[in-house]
Every structure is written in C-alpha cells, then in structure tokens.
Amino acid sequence: MSLALSTQLICFLLLSGALLLGALGVVLLPNVVYSAFLLGGVLLSMAGLYLLLNASFVAAAQVLVYVGAVNVLILFAIMLVNKRQPMRPMRVLLLRRLLSVAVCLGLLALLVQVALTTPWALPGPPSIGEAALTRIGEHFFTDYLLPFEVASVLLLMAMIGAIVLARRDVLARDVVTGEPADQALLERQRPPFLPSQGGSSPSAPSPR
Amino acid sequence: MFGFLKQVGDYSREAAAAARGITQGLAVTFDHMRRRPVTVQYPYEKLIPSERYRGRIHFEFDKCIACEVCVRVCPINLPVVDWVMNKETRKKQLKNYSIDFGVCIFCGNCVEYCPTNCLSMTEEYELAAFDRHSLNFDNVALGRLPTSVTMDPAVQPLRELAYLPKGAVDPHGVPDQERRAGQLPQEAAAANTAANTKEDSRP
Amino acid sequence: MIPTAPPRLPFATLPGGNLDLAGGFQAVLQGWGLSPGLAHALWLPLPMVLVLVAAVVGVLASVWMERKVSAAVQQRIGPEYAGPLGILQPLADGLKLLVKEDVIPARADSLLFTLGPVLVLVPVILSWLIVPFGQNLLISNVGVGIFLWIALSSIQPIGLLMSGYSSNNKYALLGGLRAAAQSISYEVPLALAVLAVVMLSNSLSTVEIVQQQNSAGLLSWNIWRQPVGFLVFWICVIAECERAPFDLPEAEEELVAGYQTEYTGMKFALFYLGSYINLVLSGLLVAVLYLGGWGFPLPVEWLATVLHQPLSSPLVQVVTASVGIVTTVLKAFLLVFFAILLRWTTPRVRIDQLLDFGWKFLLPIALVNLLLTAALKLVFPTIFGG
Lengths: 208, 203, 386
Hints:
By secondary structure, chain A is mainly α. Chain A contains 6 helices and no strands. The N and C termini of chain B lie far apart (83 Å). The model of chain B has no long low-confidence stretch (mean pLDDT 87). Chain C is an all-alpha fold. Chain C contains 16 helices and 2 strands. A two-stranded antiparallel sheet of chain C has the order 1-2. In chain C, strand 1 and strand 2 form a beta hairpin. In chain C, helix 5 packs parallel to helix 13 and helix 8 runs parallel beside helix 16. The longest helix of chain C has 32 residues. Chain C is globular, with a radius of gyration of 22 Å. The N terminus of chain C is likely disordered. Chains A and C meet through helix 2 and helix 3 of A and helix 2, helix 6, helix 7 and helix 8 of C.
C-alpha cells in the first residue's frame, strides 16, 4: 500500500471514529455546553471527510458555515441564557425514552436499508477537485437558481424577524409581552458630529 | 431625497474628519519615534530630588512640644502623638510619635505648621514594603536620615530637567561643574535683598 | 506531479522556468540511493516544520519590534540588557512562561480549560498553509486558498468561548463572548473585501492572486485598484487580531484580561503566541492580497533583462526567490509596524462603537466596494481582470 493510500485510510478511520463518538456524546452527555462543543467537533470531522473526498471548497464552506456560524450561535445562545430553573421531574420518563429510542432505531433502519439497497457505483465518478468551485457556481446560477433565491429570501425573513424581536420599540406593541412598547427607546436621528460649514447648528447656543 | 443626500454627505464628512484625525495622531506618534529617550535606568541611576521635594517626613523627637498642631492641620488627623502631663515641670512630655506613610498623602501641612520645626520633609521616596503595616513609622524610624542619592556609591545621580544647564535635555554626560539654568536660590535671595535695600534707601 | 529533475542539481527548475525545491531535494535523496517514495516522505514534513519555525521566529521578531517601537513612541529605551538591543528579550519572555507554574483554577473545567488555547492557536498556524513566499515557496497551493483562511479563522471564536466559559470567571466569560462577537461581526466585511480582490483576479488561490498583481511591479498592485477594500480589510484584520484600538476582549480596565484572566504559564503563552502569529499572518495576507506578495516594486524579470541575465539561469532563480522571500517579509513587517503605531495612537473603542463601526460603516462600505468592483470589471475588463 502506498504512502498516500495508507495515510488516507488512517485519516478516514480517525475522522469517522471522532465523528461517531462525538455524535454519541452530543446526544448522551448531560452537560449541554459539552454537547455544543462536541457538535463543533463533529462538524469539523465532517469537514475533514469532505476534504478526504477531494471536495476542499465544500469542506471550507462546512467549517465556515456550520462551525464558524451555526455552532458559535448555539454556544452564544447557551452562554447568554442565564436562567437557572430546576428541571421538573417528567412523568413517564422511561416510556418517553423508549419511544425516542424506537424512533431513532427506525430512522437508523431506514438509513441502513437505503445504504444497502442503493447500487453504489464503485468507484464513483472521478472527483473534479478544484474545478468544483466553478461547477457549484454554475449550478447555483442556472438550474438551482430558484432554491438558491428562496434560501436567501428565507435568510432575509429570519434577519428581519430577529431585528423585530431584538428592537422591541419598532412596533407599537411589544411582540413578546403584548404591552405598549417604550417608544422613548427608539433611536433618534443625532445631530451631525461636525457642524456643517456656514450654517450654525440649531441646538448650540450662539456665543455672544 | 435631498435630506437623505445631506445625511450621506454629513456621514462621509464625519468619516473623512475621523480619518484625518487618525492620520494626524499617527504623524504625532511617528514623530515621537525620532526623539531621544528620557529614560533614567532606575536602580543604577537616580534623579536628584529637588530642594522642595516632599518625601518621607523626618521627625526630631527632642524638639517636639506635643502641641498636636500637626494632627489638627493634617487632612486626616494622621500623626499619633502620645504624651503625658508631667506634674513637676507642668509641661507635656512626649512618649511616642508615629506617622503611617501608607496613609499619608505627603501634603506637607504638618511640616508647614510645626511651631518648633521638628518636622521636615526629606528626599526619600523609596517606601516599598512587603507589609503595609511596616510603613507605620514610629519616632525612631522617623528620626533616621535618608541616604542621599549623591552619597550612594552604587548609584549614578542625575540632575532633573530644571537643574540642567540651559539647552540641555538629557542629564547623561552633563558635567557636574556646569551651572544650572537661572539663578540659585541663594542668589535669588541675595538679589531680592539688594533690591529691597535699594528700594528702602531711595526716598 | 512534479517532474523529476536531473540528479545532483540542488535547484531544479519547473517547466515554467521557476525554482522547484521539492524536485531538487528528492532528486538529491534519490541520488543517494533512496527510493522515490521514501524521498517524498522525507520531503513532506520539511516545509511544514520550516513554516512553523518561520512563524515562531516571526513572532519573536514582532514581539521585539512591538516592545522597541512602543518604547520609541513613548520616548523610552525598551528592552536593552538581553542581547544586543534587547533582541533576546522575547526568548527570555518565552522561557519565563515555559517554566512558570501551570495553574488550573480549582472550580474550572480542566478539560475545556486546556483545550481552549489549543483551539485558538491551531487554526492560526494552519492558516500559514496558504501564505506564499514565492512562486513555489508555499506549503500547499490549495485551490480554495484564501477561502480556507477565512474558514479557519472562524474556528477561533469557539476556542475563545471555550476558554472563557471554562475559566469559571465572569470576566473571562464576558471577554470570551466579546471576542467571539467581535470576530464574527468583523468576519463579514473582511470576507466581502476579500471577495472583491478575488473578483479582480478570478481565483481564490493566493499564488494566482499575487501573480496577477506582478505584471508591472509597483503599479499593478491591488492597492491601486482596491484602496477602499485595502482599508476595510486592514481594519477588519486588526479587529480580528484583537489589537488596539479593538482590544476590548482584553480591556484591562473593565475585564482584567478577558478570556486570558485565569491562564498562566504555557497556556497563556499559547494565547500570546497565537495573537502574534495571527498578527504576522495578517500582515502577510495584506501583503499578498493588496501589496503584490513576493513581487519587488520593480519587476524582477525586467531587471534581469536589463542586466542581460537569462531568466532560467540558476543564479537568477536563486536571487529571485530570495528577493521574493525578503520582500514578502518586509511588507508584512511594515504592516505590523503600522499596527503597533496604531496601537499607541488610537484610544480603545467602546463595545457599542465597535459593533456600530463593524455593521453600520464597514459592512455597507465593503458592499458598495464590491458592487463598484463588479461594475468596473464589466466596464474595464482589461484593467479590472475581465
């Protein structure tokens, strides 16, 4: 076995191991912060697997979007929520756990079924490597234009919603509590820092 | 429409002014880089404190009459004066005197108001200690004279800017004999008395 | 693959007429009777170790420069006793941190506490993968090049959050959250500024970005085509490095030392190392993206023609490569110098000013710059890389 192949195999085994163990940790650990950090690890190993498949752009995008944005957002949410409330003991906890295990096992069975029945063409089509970037761009702006635009509209909606939620003063009534919002919090237009040339600023008292 | 344009104009003018400010600041710091350092290599070199330097306070036990003026003029009533009334001489007899230099602000009021001049300010400023309570000086500690910077063989004494010859900025390498700029205190005093006598003799 | 060069020639050349160190090295090893696979395996770690060493030496140099320039700005002398001109002072600092006691606070989360600095340092070192010092003088000419750097630098906030959270200290947590918020918000205008450059050179690869700037020496550098982008990128990079005036995560008046509060010894040294490696890396990347990378202000090809030297001769090749390395490093350190000067010139901004500046000033400007670049590219395809 050549150097490159064995390296590839070792990397693949390491990455898959890290991915599986990390994913189990995300689900099973009781500490939610650990789960969030492990999720970052899982996403990183996924990026590593993409890299092994010669899809460097997808790997970098995976790191940028999932690790750099989504995971950091999750961590932010966990760390900024400072509400300590005791967990109420749940009724029929055992039954709930059994049910969720059953659902997960069903999904797993489905996946295994799909993986076993799909005729994988081995070796698959040769990876296009660096040309992937151009190919992805072409697809985005031709046949996948509609999903691409719909996704951006979705993001825009999310952004506007976040702004409305964060600035409770833009609407007359508070979105969350339903009380009339404090309009005094509205950002007013500030007078310019530099007085405009010639014209005297109205607020400044005239020096006499 | 034009309101918006005006806003944009104001905004860009502000940004340009900020950029100009930062450039000016950079020019200032850049210019400072070519100036000579003013460093005094402290434990090896020390500046000679000026005549009016307000350092650690010196106390002469035998001169003190325990009048407690120093306590009254002190902003925080810091000096501790421990005395008893001597029945025979019918005078106050001082037993202990202490000042805590961890609390003192070295304002010099006590020195200024002491009727018998038993308090004075020294040029000692090295008051570092491992325990703040060791800065509470009693009358023995207050009576010690500080080591002068000029007397210490391990230290290279340097003159402060005000005591350097005219035009000199760096104290390194200035010969000791060279006179400071301006008049010495005694010369100023002599000139003053001369002028006063002339004033008096004129009419 | 790399073509095999004639044996026993230390500096083989690629068909393009450029220096090929890898081929030469392997050819020499094969000349000693080693198998090609073994020669390749021996070559593989060399550039990585070399770049790691280069990064650390760059850190030492920039720490020394920081201390000396700071001293000069404040009319002090600065380090003087450790070696001539205090040049060994950074080494002494490092040695001190190395032998200091490694304290993990009792209530801290020791696993995350240890992992945090590593997660901060590793992406920064990995980013050196794409820094070119010459035509073939880089570890890997990855196709996604500059995008890889942006992706890697987005891992850093996780390390910061991790160390801030695990210290079990309110200042550390606040500092970590601030650092993460800061690097996320400045990543956006940074990426847009990079995108404009990428649009000009039609490639993400750093080597191609530099090559595309080196047709006419000084005049063809990207800074003339992207002055606004250059400023935006430079500001964002300084904010990403958490240097003054954007050093809020470590604002000592408010947060003691931010996420580094509880760290001592080697773990603190990792943060320190990371921040300075990042600074040097940022200088290098600004040089690559906007100041023509390894390109000398006068085109080397033109100089060689003037001096009647054939471009393919080994001497010219070696001289070109050395000039390239020196030029890149010089440009980077010039930018580091400006960062240091800026540190002593500007006061620290407040957190609201920082976010305002990032989202309401840099982002719109970077967007307008991008649109303008696209428009100019359509109108003047010859100048703006059609």
